[in-house]
Amino acid sequence: MMDKSEKIFVAGHRGMVGSALVRRLKSEGFSNLLVRDRSKLDLKNAVTEFFAQEKPALVILAAAKVGGIKANNDFPVEFLLENSRIQNNVIQAAYENGARKLLFLGSSCIYPKFAPQPIPETALLSGPLEPTNEAYAIAKIAGIKLCQAYAREYGANFISVMPTNLYGPNDNFDLETSHVLAALLRKAHEAKARKDRKLIVWGSGKPRREFLLVDDLASACLLLLEKYDSSEIINVGCGEDISIRELAELICEVVGFDGDLAWDATKPDGTPRKLLDVSKLRALGWKPSIPLRDGIARTYEWFLANCAR
Ligand code: GFB
Fold it and tell me: Which residue owns the Cα nearest ligand 1 atom 33?
């Protein structure tokens, strides 16, 4: 059992992943959570003083510049630079200030574009990446390698967790920069409100993705904080994928939009398929608890309460 009074720094607590982790940690009775707003602590710049003062025992690195296929494709410089800076700063400072464990969040886009499906952890660095998110993936791979280097060279207990495509409360619903699920929820909501007859979906609808509610990711992270002490990366997913077309249809059902789907072929498809092999995590006794339809309904409720005008 973990000591629930240990100081845990959640970097990125305002984001979708970080906020889900904070909710989960609180509900499990962790009483010593450390967070800092961006205006007080810029993780891209100086973090050494903060770490020297606070000396967190556990560090969860959920701070990152993230975005959907278009943002990744349009802003490779920012995705590569900002993520490298944040993770280099936090990982180094965590080690130098005696953190006993660090959990680094990667992404399923670290795997090669044509990796075997479902994708085992061993597929890392076995082939070329998907070009639309190569910069982000390279930053995340560098983060994994830095954690592994600290483990090998200095014996640090720094673990790296690879989540599949995530969604949920606090997701980004901006149509230019969001991921597909949040984008389609907003589009279906607005199309319904305007009584449109069609909803535009990017690409061909053929790519397949695996979606995990961020609350399930948070529960997996807690288990890994408690039970997983290897620097080998570990996948977190639900084990099932669906096509973008099927996702769009499901979202329209949940939202209650009954018009047609139209396809914007000028937008990229990205990786043809991205389904993680989650047998390693399953062997530790974890499974997801929220089916996709319920997760979408929950996320739509959150959107209605927080974003819809
Ligand atoms: O979620 P998404 O933006 O990113 O797009 P990736 C997934 C698929 O949904 C692509 C299609 O085939 C998109 O073309 N899609 C359809 C849409 N309609 C839309 C729409 O309105 N908005 C968006 N955004 N997509 C990301 C990476 O890849 O996955 C990140 O860019 C990260 O690096 C994340 O790793 C998990 O799944 O293709």
Answer: 133
